[in-house]
Amino acid sequence: MGSTGLVKYLTESRIITTLGAALLLEGAFYLIHSFWKKYYSSEKEKYRLLFFPDSKPTCKASYKERYGCTNSSCRYEHDGTAFKELMQILYSARKTVDLCIFCITSPEMADAVIHLHNHGVIVRVISDDGQVDSVGSQIGRFRAEGMYRSKSF
Ligand SMILES: [Zn+2]
């Protein structure tokens, strides 16, 4: 190897070393970012604003079934609805849920609350006393599941 060949070799090896270092740094950044995202970012997101009603009803299977909706002729909405996002947030709870709603009439939301309660998540539902026995109220289902009424204001 002559001096020109040696310079070329050193230059190529520097480029390869630099590329290797860049890939290593990117890999390290990816790992740190993944770690941060998994353990810290969810703590930072405390508020999300959702607007209702959605333009079309949401398909229950789209948020409840593991592989989503498999009905090819399903006429309900599968993505991008506020209700789906709300249900995904509810079903992802692992410790506590505080749900403050004037009158809970959605059977799907009640299903989620009961599911969480039965899986050890502490669920607190705050609703209007006067709406408890109104048509479509789901509070009776909570009572039937053993969720008790703690206080009225
Ligand atoms: Zn569907």
Topology:
Elements lengths: L2 H42 L15 H5 L17 H10 L4 E5 L6 H12 L3 E5 L12 H6 L9
Parallel strand pairs: 1-2
The structure holds zinc ion.
Q: List how many beta strands DSSP finds.
A: 2
Q: Give the helix/strand class.
A: mainly alpha
Span between termini:
89 Å
Principal-axis shape equals: elongated
The unreliable regions are none
Q: Write down the Rg.
A: 26 Å
- Give the ordered list of helices and strands: HHHEHEH
Q: Ions, cofactors, ligands: which are bound?
A: zinc ion
Q: Provide the helix percentage.
A: 40-55%
Could you describe the 3D structure shown?
This protein has 153 residues and is mainly alpha-helical. The protein has three domains: 1-41; 56-92, no CATH class; 94-153, no CATH class. It has five helices and two strands; from the N terminus they run αααβαβα. α4 links the parallel β1 (96-100) and β2 (122-126). It is elongated, with a radius of gyration of 26 Å. The model has no long low-confidence stretch (mean pLDDT 83). Residues 59, 61-62, 69, 71, 74, 76, 78 line the site of zinc ion (ZN). Zinc ion binds next to α2.
